[in-house]
């Protein structure tokens, strides 16, 4: 049985959820449905939507919002926060190493081909000194809980992690629609995230930056699936939202076109992939980036957040080595566990996976969004046969993990209140002045009965996450 975050095995309510349990006893399904509809209306009026790439209808969608909050006790969060800080330090050290002296490869801890053959590794970054030595300024690390005390890292997202707007929107909904429940708790705030993000970016400015540091958010444009979040964050931080055509480079310095003439840009929070940022260095067909941007970056005249090449740690095989990175770079034991992972590139692991496909979750090494994966216990015989052939044809493209019994939280669904599986994406900010983490993060919930896939593109929804003083 999965761990129930609200109730103990004897049916009694866990201490953090006592007020939630009382509240649920006093509201009807009709009242909950009205509040759910109001939450959806709030999202629609605010334009808080997302697009699914490849969707034939091409329509903007609302991510379903579950109004019953997820509760974490302050002591649970403290343990999780310490582990996140440790992990992000190790990931930053690994990136500095593989683009520098490559000590971890020389030591034989990480196989060298995981770097050289990784499509997200950018050889152009080798030997470059990035401002303040920080590669991952903004990370979203996906966390799952499978029992009462232990949190596991499911995935590291170091390129352009998204979801912050849903975290902040969910909190506003909680305060507006459930003031009586919210007021019954001492909930740690997340509303200051934009200020924390701006402070992080400003602290990471190049050492030769202008006195009044100028930061911008670079977006691919309005057709990007996360465009709402780009405009939302730029507005909340009070910085300009720009596209590639709004910027230009002169003498290895980046400028923004304004009505008052060119203005130097010191920091670019970029929400487009490496391949598109500079057509002179990467994809020559890109119309989204800025010609000469990489030269300005290499010259140390602008900070890119996140750094080019950070996707090298998003690889699901590299993920399996992160505990070793913690030991190698920090000399510490990992505070957060990894999910046990079989690397199908290894013959012994592959043999085990082929013999246990019906029990395992098989993922593409560079997959995302819940696509390209097999959930063995829920798969048909035809699906398993198809993945068996894929594994034999290209085992290096896959990893496998046990089918975890993800923890559940009470959720309001069509049948009423029922437990649904959840994960958590905290957002970790790393600047020259330290690490910032707002308490909680984005809880994603698998709203379909029995489903373990929480991704919004696969029918998942979101919850507000309350870190409360018990």
Automatic annotation (TrEMBL):
Domain Circularly permuted ATP-grasp type span(s) in chain numbering: 69-446
Listed InterPro entries: ATP-dep_Glu-Cys_Ligase-2, CP_ATPgrasp_2, UCP005522
Pfam family membership, one: CP_ATPgrasp_2
Superkingdom of origin: Bacteria
Protein name (record): Circularly permuted type 2 ATP-grasp protein
Organism the protein comes from: Dongia rigui
């Amino acid at each position: 049985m999965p761990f129930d975050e609200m109730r103990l095995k004897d049916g009694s309510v866990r201490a953090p959820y006592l007020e939630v349990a009382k509240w649920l006893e006093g509201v009807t399904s009709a009242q909950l449905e009205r509040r759910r509809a109001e939450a959806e209306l709030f999202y629609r009026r605010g334009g808080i939507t997302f697009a699914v790439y490849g969707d034939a209808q091409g329509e903007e969608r609302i991510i379903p919002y579950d109004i019953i909050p997820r509760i974490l006790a302050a002591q649970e969060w403290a343990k999780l926060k310490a582990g996140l800080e440790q992990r992000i330090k190790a990931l930053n050290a690994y990136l500095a190493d593989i683009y520098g002296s490559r000590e971890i490869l020389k030591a034989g801890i990480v196989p060298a081909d995981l770097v050289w053959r990784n499509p997200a590794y950018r050889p152009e970054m080798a030997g470059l000194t990035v401002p303040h030595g920080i590669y991952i300024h903004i990370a979203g690390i996906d966390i799952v809980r499978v029992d009462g005390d232990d949190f596991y890292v499911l995935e590291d997202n170091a390129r352009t992690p998204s979801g912050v707007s849903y975290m902040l929107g969910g909190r506003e909904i909680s305060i507006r629609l459930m003031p009586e429940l919210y007021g019954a708790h001492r909930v740690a705030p997340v509303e200051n995230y934009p200020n924390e993000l701006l402070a992080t970016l400003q602290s990471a400015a190049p050492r030769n930056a202008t006195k009044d540091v100028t930061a911008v958010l670079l977006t691919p444009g309005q057709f990007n699936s996360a465009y709402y979040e780009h405009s939302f964050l730029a507005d909340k931080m009070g910085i300009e939202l720009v596209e590639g055509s709004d910027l230009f480079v002169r003498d290895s310095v980046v400028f923004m076109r304004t009505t008052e003439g060119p203005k130097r840009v010191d920091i670019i929070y970029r929400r487009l992939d490496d391949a598109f940022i500079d057509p002179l260095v990467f994809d020559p067909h890109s119309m989204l980036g800025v010609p000469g941007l990489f030269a300005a970056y290499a010259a140390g005249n602008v900070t890119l957040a996140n750094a080019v090449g950070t996707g090298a740690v998003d690889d699901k095989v590299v993920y399996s080595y992160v505990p070793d990175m913690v030991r190698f770079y920090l000399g510490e034991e990992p505070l957060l566990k990894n999910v046990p992972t079989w690397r199908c590139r290894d013959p012994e692991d592959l043999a085990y996976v082929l013999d246990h496909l019906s029990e395992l979750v098989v993922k593409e090494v560079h997959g995302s969004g819940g696509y390209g994966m097999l959930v063995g216990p829920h798969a048909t015989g035809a699906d398993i046969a198809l993945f068996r052939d894929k594994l034999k044809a290209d085992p290096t493209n896959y990893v496998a993990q046990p089918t975890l019994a993800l923890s559940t939280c009470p959720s309001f669904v069509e049948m009423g209140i029922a437990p649904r599986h959840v994960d958590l994406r905290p957002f970790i900010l790393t600047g020259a002045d330290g690490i910032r983490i707002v308490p909680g993060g984005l809880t994603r919930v698998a709203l379909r009965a029995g489903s373990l896939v929480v991704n919004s593109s696969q029918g998942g929804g979101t919850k507000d996450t309350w870190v409360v003083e018990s």
